[in-house]
Write a structure and sequence with these properties.
heterodimer; A: alpha+beta; Immunoglobulin-like; 3 domains; five-stranded mixed β-sheet; 10 helices; elongated; B: mainly alpha; Cytochrome C Oxidase, Chain A; two-stranded antiparallel ribbon; 16 helices; 1% strand; disordered N terminus; binds protoporphyrin IX containing FE; binds copper (II) ion; cytochrome-c oxidase activity (chain B); metal-binding (chain B); heme (chain B)
Chain lengths: 357, 597
């Protein structure tokens, strides 16, 4: 059905284009102008006006995009300690970009309109001006210097892991096409592991070294629970191909590389429950559920199940192409109070008790 | 024939005519003008395939659940009952990217215009080696054919993304496309690189050795500067991709472990040990980043030339333009790490690459301001080529500005590999370079084919393309900032993104219209080759040497002696002259100063 519609629309577009050609041709025949293939004064004028029209279009699409899709919860609702600094830097960069974009696009299109060619007019022979060029070299230098300093400071703060605040160590383990989390247990030290030690029959699915004392109390889960306010240090591992652990709400991402352990640390600041209560999130969830109700109608008509109601959860997404089901490689993240976390972790099985003998 | 093609550089040889058969004239031609046309036509065909692929995967993203008869018709077994397979989605994206970057905008753009313009604009009878030039084209043709053949492989074409990161690309059990499909991809690219190297060496040698009398380096048109520097970047960086490809072939076929280590897949441990995928990323992006400048610099050269000629004004800041080309070229070789901020590379290296990357914004800004100033107080002739040049500056600015965000490692964490990136690189590299290529085609079509393109079709082509380009890629920034990853076959497993579905529909509609509009151009192009209005010798009243050659192509370019050059290429509307352009061949008047800034 869509395909048919698409084809029909495309055919209409072709017809419309054909009509436009005829209109152009007619307009030129009336003016008695030549058809040599070189622009005439009339062409210059028409395209000059179109340039201004196009400037309007660029501004319009910018405004529409900002108004309709500019409430980016992922850009303003960060849930980690370093999140607000990143968002702040993002906002500053965006303001600079929008300013430069607005001004330069105006100059470009306005000049194209203002100086459209006319017979007999002579252009200004203006080949060089060192002062001007110095100005527009130095201004970007200053602006960029500011951005570089701010950016690098932020980056170093994010990537520098402070072992002294005793972070909770969690392994994120990626495989085609799902995630596992491994908690270090009471000793907060992850046991040694290598994919060569994987023994599916004994349920040693992450390849832990069974002889390593540190591994005994490790806990492997399929959901990621984090206590709020406690620094976490993730150690990433992959057993097959590259994956990327993307946790957009926490402004966190790191690739998982086979044969190598990568790391990323942050401190979650908002529990899942609190995040669900923020007005922005409630608005977003309402909007999404409206869409889901709408999308369920045809399903119900076909006698299928309607879509489930959506409730907000933090997510860990795979963000590095990893094969067929890359588009569905996700894990739920739950940020909760320390007590809730303690209760949850107590219920999970320790490695030594999860092995099948 | 070959012995004599090599001597075409010399003045005394031009009178010598030799028999040309159909085969030596149109197929195994050693004439740079014919080779340029061959590149253009091959690039165009590849472009059509690449665009069709993008239209298909855009339809999939917009209407993921619905069966589509087009898929069934075009993809056959990969779309049973019209439902696209997830692997083939990735394959389409991969081959689309590969074709667009390498086959259209590297070979199609550089191959066409370096070949056409280098000898004509520097005043040479042909390339330094016509034979190597011919070999270069045919290697390109061969690699195109192999890339197309790879689409029909049983287990599917390469699908690991155009960046083919191992281990995904190395292990057939990780993905169907990593079997024979990837082998053919690698073979095709290896041949492509050989072709590109031969071409580049030829361009460099020709520019250095075969300039006519008076054509000093500071009198060269900016096109030639751009092609020259591009060729040098290619010579420096393509061999590194070649070695990456060779090492990957070794890992795949001969059991070495350059990029692989500690892998457990489908129930078994593989023997690989000690290699690192991050090493591959370094090698890949050591070419991959310069590659985007290999794509964009020639477009910048073409646009500078066309803007000056159609503004009837000298290009503003000629020397600064050359300096910024050189600065961009240099910096482009030391920024590759900005693709790897979160690859697991040492964060300190990330800081260094942030620094070098943001530096590139400076020469880029200089170029943009110089183009805008070139328009100021001009007498703008709004030919289709000029429209595409202005469009180029517009998309280059829009796309370039978001580079400030992506180049900033702290911000890249959150938008890396999202649609924000897709928006950024399509505007700044894909669309901009495509505009540069279109501008070049509209401008030099009379030189290539002796006929004019229909300008009204050109106007329609430009305006509809311009609207669609923004319509497709501008909203993508916003879905990217909302966290939507790229290379997802469908987003319906993430209710979180449900409210972005309508944006994806809008994007796809613009993409489909934009794709169909290209038919206008193709029609114009192929019809005008045979039925276009006959061109005059210098239709745009330009100063450069190519317009002093006769409309009918002849071997050796000029029937008589090669003209000598007496001034730079940008004497438009120079005070003291009656006409608004003074060709480079006109000697300075008594007391006239040669302004060369
Ligand atoms: C007809 C206009 C085009 C449309 C609608 C289009 C659309 C797209 C989209 C939506 C993607 C991202 C898919 C994904 O990541 O899931 C993509 C990927 C890509 N496109 Fe285009 N594109 C167009 C033209 C171009 C051009 C002119 C270039 C030249 C540079 C280009 C180069 C690429 C590359 C390099 C990729 C990345 C492929 C990958 O992820 O491996 N595209 N295209
Ligand atoms: Cu993935
Ligand atoms: Cu890059």
């Amino acid at each position: 059905m869509t395909a048919l519609l698409t084809i029909i629309v495309l055919v209409f577009i072709l017809i419309a284009i054909w009509q436009m050609v005829k209109i152009f041709d007619l307009a030129q025949a009336k003016g008695g102008s030549d058809t040599s293939g070189v622009a005439t004064d009339k062409d210059n004028t028409m395209n000059g006006y179109l340039m201004m029209g196009f400037l309007g279009f660029i501004y319009a699409i910018t405004i529409v995009s900002l108004v309709k899709w500019g409430d980016l919860p992922l850009m303003s609702n960060s849930a980690s300690e370093h999140g607000p600094t990143v968002d702040n830097l993002m906002v500053i960069s965006m303001v600079i970009i929008f300013f430069v974009q607005t001004v330069t696009q105006f100059l470009l299109h306005y000049f194209a309109f203002k100086y459209k060619g006319e017979k007999g007019k002579k252009a200004l022979f203006f080949a060089d001006n060192n002062k001007l060029e110095a100005i527009w070299t130095i201004i970007p230098v200053i602006v960029l210097a500011g951005l570089i300093i701010y950016g690098l400071n932020t980056w170093i703060n994010i990537m520098g892991v402070d072992e002294s605040d005793d972070p909770l160590v969690v392994e994120l383990y990626a495989q085609q096409f799902n995630w596992k989390a491994r908690y270090a247990g009471a000793d907060n030290t992850l046991g040694k592991a290598n994919v060569r030690l994987i023994d599916i029959d004994r349920a040693n699915i992450l390849g832990l070294d069974e002889a390593d004392p540190n591994a005994q109390d490790d806990i492997i889960t399929t959901e990621l629970h984090l206590p709020v306010g406690k620094p976490v240090l993730f150690k990433m591992r992959s057993q097959d191909v590259l994956h990327s652990a993307y946790m957009p709400h926490f402004r966190a991402q790191m690739n998982c590389v086979p044969g190598m352990i990568t790391q990323f640390g942050f401190t979650p600041t908002v529990t899942t429950a609190d995040m669900r209560l923020t007005p922005e999130m409630q608005e977003k969830v309402t909007r999404i559920n409206k869409i889901r109700v709408e999308n369920s109608k045809p399903l119900v008509a076909k006698g299928e199940e309607p879509l489930e109601r959506y409730e907000f959860d933090y997510l860990l997404l795979c963000n590095k192409i990893c094969g067929k089901s890359h588009y569905n490689m996700q894990m739920k993240i739950v940020v909760e109070t320390q007590e809730e976390y303690d209760a949850w972790i107590k219920e999970q099985k320790e490695f030594k008790n999860s092995l099948i003998n | 024939m070959s012995a004599h093609a090599d001597t075409h550089g010399h003045d005394d040889d031009h009178g010598h005519h030799h028999k040309e058969t159909f085969v030596t004239k149109y197929i195994f031609s050693q004439d740079h003008k014919m080779i340029a046309k061959q590149y253009l036509v091959t690039g165009t065909i590849m472009g059509v395939i690449g665009v069709l692929m993008s239209m298909m995967f855009r339809m999939q993203i917009a209407w993921p659940e619905e069966p589509n008869v087009l898929f069934e018709a075009l993809l056959g077994k990969w779309a049973p009952d019209g439902v696209m397979d997830a692997d083939i989605y990735l394959a389409l994206v991969t081959i689309h990217g590969t074709i667009m970057v390498f086959f259209v905008l590297t070979a199609g753009l550089s191959g066409t215009f370096s070949n056409l313009l280098i000898p004509l604009q520097i005043g040479a009878r042909d390339m330094a080696s016509g034979f190597l030039n011919m070999v270069s084209y045919w290697l390109f043709f061969l690699s195109s054919v192999i890339m197309i053949i790879s689409l029909f492989v049983e287990a599917g074409p390469a699908a690991a993304g155009w960046t083919i990161y191992p281990p995904l690309s190395a292990l057939p059990m990780a993905q169907g496309g990593s079997g024979m499909g990837m082998t053919l991809w690698l073979v095709s690219m290896a041949i492509f690189i050989a072709s590109s190297l031969l071409g580049s060496l030829n361009y460099v040698v020709t520019v250095i050795n075969l300039r006519t009398k008076g054509m000093s380096m500071t009198r060269l048109p900016l096109t030639i500067w751009a092609f020259f520097v591009t060729a040098i970047i290619g010579i420096i960086s393509f061999p590194v991709l070649l070695s990456a490809a060779l090492l990957l072939i070794m890992d795949r076929s001969f059991g070495t472990s350059f990029f692989l280590s500690d892998i457990f897949i489908q129930g078994e441990v593989l023997h690989y040990q000690g290699g690192s995928p991050v090493l591959f990323e370094h090698l890949f992006w050591f070419l991959g980043h310069p590659e985007v400048y290999i794509v964009i610099l020639p477009a910048m050269g073409l646009v500078s030339e066309i803007m000056a000629s159609n503004s009837r004004k000298p290009i503003f800041g000629y020397r600064a333009m050359i300096a910024s080309i050189l600065a961009i070229a240099f910096l482009s070789t030391i920024v590759w790490g900005h693709h790897m901020f979160i690859s697991g590379m040492n964060p300190f290296l990330g800081s260094v690459f942030t620094f070098t990357t943001l530096l590139i914004a400076i020469p880029s800004a200089v170029k943009a301001f110089n183009w805008i100033t070139t328009l100021w107080k001009g007498n703008l002739q709004m030919n289709p080529a000029m429209l595409f040049s202005i469009g180029f500056v517009s998309t280059f600015i829009t796309g370039g500005l978001t580079g400030i965000i992506l180049g900033d490692s702290a911000l890249d964490i959150n938008v890396h590999d999202t649609y924000f990136v897709v928006a950024h690189f399509h505007l700044v590299m894909g669309i901009s370079a495509l505009y540069g290529m279109f501008a070049g085609i509209y401008h030099w079509f009379p030189k290539m084919f002796g006929r004019m393109l229909n300008k009204n079709l050109g106007y329609i082509h430009f305006w509809l393309t311009a609207v669609c380009a923004y319509g497709v890629f501008f909203p993508m920034h916003f879905i990217g900032m909302a966290g939507l990853p790229r290379r997802y076959y469908t987003n319906s497993n993430f209710p979180l993104f449900d409210d972005l579905a309508n944006v994806n529909v809008i994007i796809t509609i613009f993409a489909l219209i934009g794709g169909v509009v290209q038919i206008v151009y193709l029609y114009n192009f192929f019809i005008s080759i045979f039925y276009g209005k006959k061109a005059v010798q210098n239709p745009w009243r330009s100063t450069t040497l190519e317009w002093t050659t006769p409309v009918e192509h002849i071997h050796g370019n000029w029937p008589g002696e090669i003209p000598h050059v007496h001034r730079w290429a940008y004497d438009y509307s120079k005070p003291g002259h009656d006409v608004d352009f003074v060709p480079q061949t006109v000697p300075l008047k008594d007391g006239e100063e040669e302004l060369q800034h």
